[in-house]
Amino acid sequence: MEYFLIIISAIFVNNIVLAQFLGICPFLGVSNKLSTASGMSMAVCFVITLATLVTYLINKYLLVPFNITFLQTIAFILVIAALVQMVEIVLKKVSPSLYQALGIFLPLITTNCAVLGVAINVVTKEFAFVPGGMLNLGQALVYAFATSLGYGLAMVIFAGIREHLALNNVPKAFKGVPIAIISVGILALAFMGFSGMVK
Amino acid sequence: MAVKSNLTNMVLVLGLTCLLCSAVLGGAYVLTKEPIDKAAAEKTNRAISQVLPHFTEVEYNEADHYYKATDGDQLVGYAIESTVVGFGGPLSLIVGVTPDGVVYNTSVLSHAETPGLGAKCTTDEKFMGQWKGFNPSIKKLSVKKDGGDVDAITASTITSRAYTQAVENALNVFNKLEGGQDNE
Amino acid sequence: MSKFKLLTDGLVKNNPTFVLLLGMCPTLATTTSAINGLSMGLATLFVLVLSNMAISAIAPVVPDKVHIPVYIVVIATFVTLLQFLMQAYTPAMYETLGLFIPLIVVNCIVLGRAEAFANKHGVGESALDGIGVGLGFTCSLTVLGLVREILGSGSAFGYNFIGGHDGMLAFVMAPGAFLCLGYLMVLFNKYLKKN
């Protein structure tokens, strides 16, 4: 039951882009075309889940026992940067086709605040529907994976909208990013309908 | 730009930077620990003094999340922390209960309710005022819509229900405490 | 480039929010009121100035291939320092801004200025650049926060002028952030941007 709640809440109710405002830069940056948007979503999904696994373990078995949780920010960002590099190298060797699909997005992900945001959320935030408030490893992974699915969902919907926007004649001052951001606002209004769904 | 990279200087510079930065942070941590702890202690003290009459000392019980407040030898009451699921996320209250089992006052520690609707549980005087001196043995602890005696916040029944639930949980903790002491 | 121009460039010509579109996440998330926007802007300014100075000082000895990790470590150090200071002296604001304080580390503005400016200029110039860009960011955040607060809660800097009524709540919630930012960008494009 908790897993189900975690998934619904992470994808719809607290959508990472539309309700939590994380990962906006790549969200605006690579959502011009549906194909790049889905590629980016998959890369983000992969990195967020992997990064959450590693940072969760580091926090639990390294930072907390040695009482150095104050190094959390610095440790997490280093781990994420190193991880992204490693994923890039491994993918290049092991699966060239996957590398071709995801490769160009990987360097962008280090500074995607969604990754660091989820990693920090998982170890610090209290979740009301989880007994005890804090997530265990399995729940953390499900949360990370579902959150990145939510990211993909928002990204794909938005890329679809943008492909249509590009065909329309908008006033000069609205062209490009402003009209895109206003559309996200309307999309966020729609997602607000989900709030309060998870009790 | 900068120096040409080779393995030695790369490892050296990266290692030195990390070392230096950790050292700086370690130092800063030690220096700011005292003010941080003080700020946190002040915050809990302020929260407790909002929900209980005058006290001089508090003692925290970690297992059941409550503070036992005393004035000299006299037991003033318990300030019990209670977290439930509200409309938008966790809703944390601190509930002051005097030894006679009456709620002295309640206060919200943190919430994620909708601004202007559920978030009124921190500002709506009528809603907040009814908890002062709420006696669970006379009044029924549930919102009026569910047949109880609690006035809900307009248009925020779910938040009001959650708030009521949190108070009930706190009273259960209190009853457990008092019941336990009677047996001794 | 004159010293004065270094400072003013960040406000309009290179405004990080409206022109460069950097640091969108904190811009949208923390501007529920003018005060919150102002605090987030100042927090970023603090990190930006210090990291710009530190990076311009160490840049000549950092080997090319590891410069990004080294910069990130330096930035993360200042961010953690800021976390300590805020926890100690402004705990309430620290709680309000929450996750977005540690996330200054991945704010593209900070790393962007380090890459584009600080590693090629002296300590003094980099500090001025940091102040300029930081002030530009602070101004945009405060303006966005003010607009959202006026529309959403009917108050400005905490001073309520509609007497106990509710504002248009959607503007303090997520959709309002996007809508206000979008329309402010339109105004900025129309009246301030020189093509």
What features would you describe in this structure?
The complex is a heterotrimer of chains A (199), B (184) and C (195). With 199 residues, chain A is mainly alpha-helical. Helix content of chain A is 70%, strand content 0%. Chain A is globular, with a radius of gyration of 18 Å. Chain B is 42% helix and 21% strand. The model of chain B has no long low-confidence stretch (mean pLDDT 82). In chain C, a hairpin with a 2-residue loop joins strand 1 and strand 2. In chain C, 65% of the residues lie in helices and 2% in strands. Chain C is an all-alpha fold. Chains A and C meet through helix 2, helix 4, helix 7 and helix 9 of A and helix 2, helix 4 and helix 8 of C.
Q: What's the structural blueprint in terms of helices and strands?
A:
The complex is a heterotrimer of chains A (199), B (184) and C (195).
Chain A: H1 2-13, H2 24-29, H3 34-63, H4 72-94, H5 96-102, H6 106-109, H7 113-124, H8 137-165, H9 177-192
Helix pairs in contact in A: 1-8, 3-4, 3-7, 3-8, 4-5, 4-7, 7-8, 8-9
Chain B: H1 7-51, E1 57-61, E2 66-71, E3 74-85, E4 90-97, E5 103-110, H2 125-129, H3 157-183
Antiparallel strand pairs in B: 1-2, 2-3, 3-4, 4-5
Chain C: H1 3-9, H2 24-29, H3 34-58, H4 67-89, H5 91-97, H6 108-116, H7 123-153, E1 155-156, E2 159-160, H8 174-191
Antiparallel strand pairs in C: 1-2
Give the helix proportion of chain B (percent range): 40-55%
**Cα-to-Cα separation, first versus last residue of chain A:** 12 Å
**SSE pattern of chain B:** HEEEEEHH
Give the strand order of the largest sheet of chain B, numbering strands 1, 2, ... along the chain.
Answer: 1-2-3-4-5
Radius of gyration of chain B using CA atoms only: 24 Å
DSSP E strands of chain A, number: 0
* DSSP helical segment count of chain A: 9
Shape of chain B: elongated
The residue-averaged pLDDT of chain A reads 85
- The helix/strand series of chain A, from N terminus to C terminus, equals HHHHHHHHH
How many helices of chain B? The count is 3
Helix content of chain A: 55-70%
In terms of structural class, how would the helical and strand content of chain A be classed? mainly alpha
Approximately what portion of the residues of chain A adopt beta-strand conformation? under 5%
Oligomeric nature of the chains: heterotrimer
Radius of gyration of chain A: 18 Å
Number of strands of chain B: 5
Distance between the termini of chain B: 77 Å
What are the low-pLDDT stretches of chain B, counting only 5+ consecutive residues below 50?
none
- Could you report the average pLDDT of chain B, rounded to the nearest whole number? 82
